[in-house]
Write a structure and sequence with these properties.
Blueprint: H1 2-30, H2 36-58
């Protein structure tokens, strides 16, 4: 269980920005059809980015 948890942390740590920026580009520029899963995945990345900014500014 620790390996799965650790791999998810690494996955979202490194891929939240490319997913957050890449999915709208793929949708609007290349015609990728948005599904509920992709919308939820993009929203999760947005929440993680907001949390990172919140923790960064709260620490100052």
């Amino acid at each position: 269980m620790k390996e799965i948890y650790g791999s998810l942390i690494m996955f979202f740590y490194f891929l939240k920005w490319p997913v957050f920026l890449g999915l709208p580009i793929l949708h609007f520029a290349y015609g990728l059809h948005a599904t509920y899963f992709l919308i939820a995945f993009w929203t999760l990345c947005l929440i993680l980015i907001i949390k990172d900014f919140w923790m960064m500014f709260r620490a100052k």
